[in-house]
Fold these 4 entries.
Entry 1:
Amino acid sequence: MTLGSEDDQARFRSVVLPHLADAYALARWLTGDRADAEDVVQEACLRAFRGIGGFAGVNSRAWVLTIVRHAAYTWLGKNRSSALVMVDDLEAVERQQASGGTPSQAAPETPEAALIAKTDAARLEAAIAELPVPFRETLVLRDVQGLDYREIAEVTKVPIGTVMSRLARARQRLVASIGTDKS
Amino acid sequence: MSPPSSPADPVLLVHAYLDGELDPAHALEIERQLAADPALAAEHKRIVALRSLIQEKLPREAPPANLLRRIEAAIGAPQAPTRFASLSSHPISSHPTWRALAASVLLALFLGSGSTWLILRPAPAPTSTTADLVLASHLRALMAPQPIDVASSDRHTVKPWFNGRIPEAPRVVDLTNDGFALVGGRIDVIGRVPVPTLVYRIRQHLISLTAVPASDAATLGTARRAIAGYNTLGWTDNGVAYWAVSDVAAPDLDAFAKAFRLGTPEP
């Protein structure tokens, strides 16, 4: 690999590095492991560095997170393909629910807000980690990293309507999971 | 944002409402439905509880210190003693052209508006004061299709919206009983720093309230200025400089500031 010009390195510093913490957090939530997250972020940064000339300069955070997500998926496919197998099934279920179901009757046994507030950090973290990847990444991008719907749609490459339904479902699953766990 | 064209699912819209993604008309519609539908209101409560749980309890890890070194080594960059803290600038600050554009639009509008007061006034000092910058943001916001980025009269929606966008969400106070309705919030850029601005309404007038981290808190007492027909009022509380700007009369702005300072931010 040829090293980039000093311009590229300066650009990389101003465009990519400010989002290193977000990049690492997303990679950790997607891989579920700190060391793996570091490898994913390093790989993503290399890709970002090579592609820095192609960055159009609008939303650097969404651009960086898109690359991190892509690197994480490549990594998951190579090292833990079972984590991704269910994505297709899930999409089918999602479509079915979207076309037929009445969403307001979902989650029959939902805990009260007061119970949710009492959940401890470890239980919350485990419940998020248990979410299927598409739900998990949507929830993390929104509720942990604070992206808006348009940015999430850009990063995860789905329409905004899908972002909305995934986010609602991810939150409902989390709430249900918190409510059923008595430990 | 408009909801998707398919039959609007009120549950999804409640989520979008809480995420500050609805335009004012849809936000009002959802607020009406929330008042009428207990099941929907329960969903609203659960989302609020879940989001504050995530905000409060989920550990936020900084990337390991050696990750930055690994990356710099990988791209062949010289090892610079950079700290993460110094890197966390807002993306907006790297786009000076946008600010220049906004400023020139503003200037063009002033010059084209046929007002003569601008020409008679002395040229603004090269370093604009915070009051000038806050007023410029207020005027810019009034010209935009809507003066806010997040529309909600619920402070539990407005405050979390700022999380993740700026380092510290502002104090949001419910002033409905004082006659000032919360309209929403937006992010302004004051001297290259993104800062939170709350927007309140009294009668037909909007008040922008911008919270600027005060580096020299002691220097600002209460600063009152009338600029170009607008009143600005600045004060400092707990290391934050607040700037209120509006076209309401000075006594109204004083009443607003007083109510905001006395108001309790928590329910």
Note: Chain A is about 75% helix and 0% strand.
Entry 2:
Amino acid sequence: MRLARVTLIWAALAAAICVPIAAAAASPLLAWRDPVYIAAGFAGIIALGLMLVQPVLTGGYLPGLSAPRGRRAHRWIGGVLVVAVIVHVGGLWITSPPDVIDALLFVSPTPFSAWGVIAMWAIFAVALLAALRRRLGMGPRTWRIAHMFLAVVIVAGSVVHGILIEGTMETVSKATLCALVLAATIKVMADLRVWRKRATSR
Amino acid sequence: MTTVVLNRRRLLAAGGSIAATGVCGLLLPARAQSLAPTPSMRGGSNNYRPGAPIVNRIGGGGFWMTGTVRRAGDGAPLAGRRIQIWAHTTEGHERDPHSHGATLTDSNGMFRLEMPQIVPAFGQPHGHLAYDSGDFQTVFLRPLMRSAKDTSLEAHFVLQPV
């Protein structure tokens, strides 16, 4: 019975991420895009999928995964997210430099661009803080609050960015993944109560 | 039961709105004769290629870009004006030279150019048009398609003489 539950949770997580990727891989739009543009799009889709894994790892919701392993995975996936965002923006830049420059300068005509750019800077900021927090002498509570704040910006920015785009992602699987990312983020924040003072640091 | 409270603030607000309505009513007929120029749209000039050749059709066709060109002020149709059109289509990216083509307006100031089907790119199904020939101020448009399945799109220019 326990095994069935464990299998089900892992399978659900895998499906939540892989189904949108598979649906996007079947998009007719791909026929009219060159490989760099396609890679840029999928880097964004994969990043959205990884955004579901991050809160799930933090909350320890994955059975069979020890807490230290989960934390290490969370850090690694954070690094992968940074790379995915760089590939996403870099690939779009190669495809159409003026559109990306407009987005980065917040003068793009497309309403979703600004949300994506804000989320991008928040991802870079959280990665930089994670790398430098010891050197900066940042206490665990300050770090947790800063990380939580940036995580909210990343999740909200990415979800609005993704939903507003008419691209290769299939609408229902995209909306489902976005809803799951939001739900997992809200749940982990409610469960951990990051803003509370703690006697011991975890 | 409601009571009507007539205080200074309300009186001023009511008086102000009546005055504003009156002024607008007086100005409107004058404005109808003075057609305002079309402003360039954000991102309209992205991937523009100055001097793209005049063509009978861009690529294999199947999609129609149509529109009008008029003069600001009196709204007179402008004939023989060169409009460049480009988009991400089934045959190429926006930056590709073969995705670009220009056409001239007829005696009624109308233009229509056949081009390949526009497909959504950079998150929206959209086309680009440019007037950039010197006699009037340059205008770049970036109209959106209501649906990615649409097989035509229109854009209208009102140009300001330089």
Note: The radius of gyration of chain A is 18 Å.
Entry 3:
Amino acid sequence: MRRALVLVVVAVACGSPPKAKKPAVPSASVAPSASAAPSASVALDPHFREHEPPLAPQAAIPMPHLRDTRLPNGMRLLVASTGGGMFAMRLVFQGPASFPAERPAVARLMVKSLFGGTPSRDAHALRRVLEKRFAAWGTYTTSDAVMIDMTMPDDDVRPCIDVLSDVVQHSNLDTLTIGFELLQLVEQGQTARESPSVVGQHVLARALFGDGHGYARPSTILDGSGNVDRVEVERVSQEILDPQYATIVLAGAVERSVVEHVERSFGSWRMTSHTSATPVTMAAWKAAPRLVVVDRPGSVQSQITFGALAPQRSSPDFYAMELIDQLLGAHRTSRLTSAIVVRDAWSYAGGTHYDAYRSGGSFYWDSSVPADKTAAALQAIDKAFQELGRTPPSQAELDGWKETYVRHLPIAAETARETTHEISVIPVDELPADTLDKIEPSIRAVTPEAVRALAAARLAPDHTRAVVVGDWAKLKPALKALGWGPIEIRDLDGKLLKTEK
Amino acid sequence: MRRLSVWVAILVVLVVGRARAADSAVVETKLPNGLRVVVDENHRTPVVSVTVRYGVGAANDPEDRNGLTELVLRMMVNKTEHVPENGFDDVIDRAGGRSGYDTNLDDTELYAEVPVSAIEKAFWLLSDQMGHFEGAVDDAAIQHGVAVLATERGQRVANSPMGLARELVPAELYPAGHPYRHAPRAGDATALATLKPAEVDAFFDKYFVPSNAVLVVSGDMKKDDVVALAKKWFGDIAPGAPQPNAFAPTTPLAHEIHLDIAARVERPVVEMTWVAPPEYAPGDAELDVVANVLHGYRIARLSWELITKLRVAGEIDVNEIPHRRGSIFRIMATATPKHTAQEVAAAIDSVLKLLETTEPPDSDDMEGSLASALMERTLSMEASLYRARQFAMWSIRAGTADYWQSDMHRYETDPTRVQQAAIRYLPLDKRVVVFVTPSATAPVSGQLLGRKVK
């Protein structure tokens, strides 16, 4: 046996960690960073393993330097030359929430159909251009933005820029492509109902923002039978794919000649939209039953999605809310996660999420727990929310999470693709161009009292709602015993079925 | 013989060229205790990723202790002799990094991506897990780990509409005695409830040892510094006995087996599975290409036939899941309204028959599928964590971290070889086919209605 069992016994009996079985091999202390130029060599402490090693000195947090320009047609260019051998671009448009007359899933369908061909190249030819340059591409739709991403080695990016320019200006949006994408969208929306987590998040969004609000309308599920014709897709494309509402973000190895090529490729693009994007209205809190149950008979676990309306991305409170997220559940060591996931083992993948949008936001806990722990978990979450509203975190606890947040910034933007994601919050959430530079000072400026005050305002019992996807018959006694008032029973789509007193 | 198109040849050459350039930066060495140390210097950002991968997975679990590897992993993450409870995540979180762990049928991995200033913290944590685990093993720790696994299993299996199907298929696919046959039932609390610390220690001592592991560091570090850190933190850990790569032979099924399941699915589902060659063995890359020929892009064969032309399926998933002791080739599709899983299965069979008889892949198929198979994984190598994990996997599974070029060269195949792989490994009369029918009254995870051997 590699290590003697007796060592374990001694450790348990004495309540202190045993020493390493063998002495450490002496070696010079090392310089742990090529770029951070850490400590010089020192003699090795024979008990080095018993203590957590200190952090080496860290250089200033590098944030990408942005160049912000506009083409005559109104399209914005945000360029971060971060080097490396990769090139990434993200084209950002206004999202479906800005077009309340349209069905959001049609925007998703439209952007997924763009690569079906243009008058000059069919789908195969488009694909071949991109594949020859190792370009990966994808489309994404959120409430606030429609986005197209491309990432590739920096060897020969111009043909890929031309493809992107071609599809957003001239896509055929042919019926065959639309039919292919539509069938998958509808069916994916249907099978998503099998996921308690997806259902819980959707129903909570409806409960918080209100039915029909731009942030409560799913972009993954088409209403009704999924009947969409090419005319509707074409109309949505003309509304959304408009240079005056477009921003292209470039990152990685971006040479000046590449920027010039982007300017030429997109410079002749003319406005097509006759519909102005409409600002999304801020959701106002409305009193409603606090507890919502989506009945899923036979469930051995309950999905809990428990949260509140939260500040929009541009709010001065955004950074305090980010720290509330860190404190409560963004990590396994956050307050709630370390209790529910780590200590009690009621869930293996739970946590909090802060979704900050352009005109609002939501903050919520999301996890699956054994059915018999549902009520206890709800109480624990509620208690943690209220506790933070009553008592500010200690300065040390808050400072720890600030460090975590700030130190993570280079990791969040390690690759060219990640860098475009980080930068794209500027157009998506209509933020100042120096937003990335403000992150660190803004986080550091948050006080414990600001955190408490925000938690008190946002996470108080009369401002939070909890959605439980589970077996109502099994859960009913324990949930009623919580004394949280009437309980709404809704179906998998969030439609109200009845209210239990 | 059908030839590769010029374009496909160029594609592979380009990918291999990129791989060669990246491989040249990878340095592999070995400590006296047998621990392989791989360094991948990349100074673009002040970030470094550290991973330790062990050659042990669910296939190594004793048959009456399903989930033992995963339990040990959970316990290693939770606490070790010098690292307090929840310390692995806590230390990495506070440093601004991200940590993770993963186990599968064949191997187990713990990793961290941190700002370079926190590199030594990662070494502290990962070395304490390897060399100082047993001091933290007691009955309470075991029972806590078992509870975590039970919760996980409750969510992934008992509360999931496809849970039963996932558990039944491996038992049909692999012969008695094959280590994958029982592995998917990991987390079954009844199998682990009676575990004692001595049994956990013995299992740990056998598999979680330097001679059965690799340490990979990728990112903003110099090679000599990494090796010095490895000696400091891992050098005093006793080597353990190397574990032979005793792979059970892959036996193809002799029959076609049908399982009929009723479950709380929204749409009828059909899932077909075959036993495929082990990862990196001849035929493995060809079947990866077959998966992409079938569903790697919009006009791939199954996508075109089932979604665009017949409109019988709304979702399709085709993949070759690589394992060391026999991979799995899997086709899954959901039926659209008014269509049955059997209709979808018949449509899939007609596509497979054509592929295996009169319509081998053409150059369009090859180009599209090779691009799908190779591009994303090539682009992902920009991220240090992906690189570290990939090099670790190659080191454990292929025997060397310096394997990128070799891995890419495997895809220098041609339409004939791809068709031959489909004929040989995807016979329509030797496979497991699961039909899942929606039922509002069935248990959430499903109920077996019938089993037929054809």
Note: Chain B touches chain A through 108 residues (CB under 8 Å).
Entry 4:
Amino acid sequence: MARIALLVLLLALLASAPLWIGSGYALSVLVLCNLWAVFAISWDFMSGQTGRENFGHGMFIGTGAYTAALLNLHTVVSPAACLPIAGVAAAAVAVVIGLPTLRLKGPYFALATLAAAAILQRFTIIFWEQMGGEEGLSGLSSLVSSPVGFYYASLAFLVLATGALVTLAASPWGILLRGIRGDEVACDAAGISTTRHKIGALVVSAFVAGVGGAMYAFFQLQAGPYLLGVNTSLSVIIMSYVGGIGTVYGAIGGAFLLTGLGEGLRRFGEYRLLFNSVFLIFIVFFLPRGLFAPLWQRLRRRAETA
Amino acid sequence: MSALLEVRGLTRRFGGLTAVKNVSFAIAGGELTGVLGPNGAGKTTLFNLLTGFVAPDAGEVRFAGADITGLARHRIVSCGMARTFQQPRPFRLMTVEENVAVACLSPRGRQQPGRSLRDRVERVLRLVGLEGKGRTPVESLPYGALRRLELARALATGPRLLLLDEPFAGLGTSEIEPLAALIAELHRRDGLTVLMIEHKLREFMRLVRRVIAMDFGEIIADGSPSEIVVNPCVVTAYLGGAEASIGTA
């Protein structure tokens, strides 16, 4: 009960945001928060549950963004229809990357995803005639005409994606995925095909990130190679850690905090990444369970006892 | 009745060491058999070979008439052969019931009696005497309960053949007695075929009907417990030629 009340309160706060912050710069920062939150929860669904850390999440975000951009520039597919197609494209990349790499043990999966994202980023330069090179692809038509409309679209997608991923994580499948994190050898002994479930989780994660990437492209009206880059992938990981890894919803808090701070610290340029890294070290040392997930759990308990 | 498990010429080398050398034996359905041998005799390697955790260099493992040599580990479990580990391997950061649920969600675990996942988990927890502990995080379980959880994970997959790797290791006498009784009951009441490795000779010899003795990767004796304890090869392997019988050990 308390949980539902808290959720409704939070949603009301987010839904009424355009009323109290207007439709200018602040609202566009909130759109970015929503989209980065989608990226972060989709990362946490795979890596937080199974414990296999994906260091190339940008490849799914970027695949989604470029798919949407290419479809929008070269075909008559409507922007809204581009979103699910972008998700499917990212999911396809996940299958191709996951099949060989998810059999790897230890840190090799992390390294392989890092390399795969770097390769995909290279492709945007090599095929510059199609992919726009360093400049990326621009001139996309808009998904929703008004900024307020786009804000609601991004918020709706965040709510939908969070609901779906939290439900999946709480389902029996989620138990299996956390079993993989707990002890992969014991999973084998329990008769579980770990590779299949890890690929399944990566595909779900990539689909959500791909749709988010497409939304991001329609928001910026362009898709650039930076989306596939290490910075994007690392930012997503830092957000999940700050939020509280393995909880899915915690990553939303991390994304809002770091995106908001990132915009606030914009005038410090490249020092922002330094700030993010210091923040991560602080979290890992002093708050290994993250900032937002424990906070939310405490709020919930307090509301329940009140 | 044909054998449930049939092993022919199983061999595995690690560098210069032949851990398991040309091992052949058969286990009929309904047996309760022990594997005996000093440290380094190749018992655990044999279990790893049977369950697909280590690939053999030569030989064949047949289970219920089908060749399962080289099959993926989880597929062997799906055939109906489940194992426990010498060191308990619980799923960290999860509760007892979630630990059991993982195995209940395996292809074979889903076919076990019970209308829902919860029913199946509860049934297995009752079976191993962990009822009421479902919500406990595995990190706060005492060692004896971890041993039972290890057994629960294997049982949840509905095995026909259960391989137990030193199920009594690290347990006190007061904990061994009920666990031995539990294994005996699973064997007698549920008709489960059991193959177990154990060092605790007294409990072991009382429990099993047949003993396969190994030394230096080879089977040196195969017979009833009373035959094994007076077998000269076994006595030599265990006591290095001393005149004492291991029955009094």
Note: The first helix of chain B runs from residue 43 to 50.
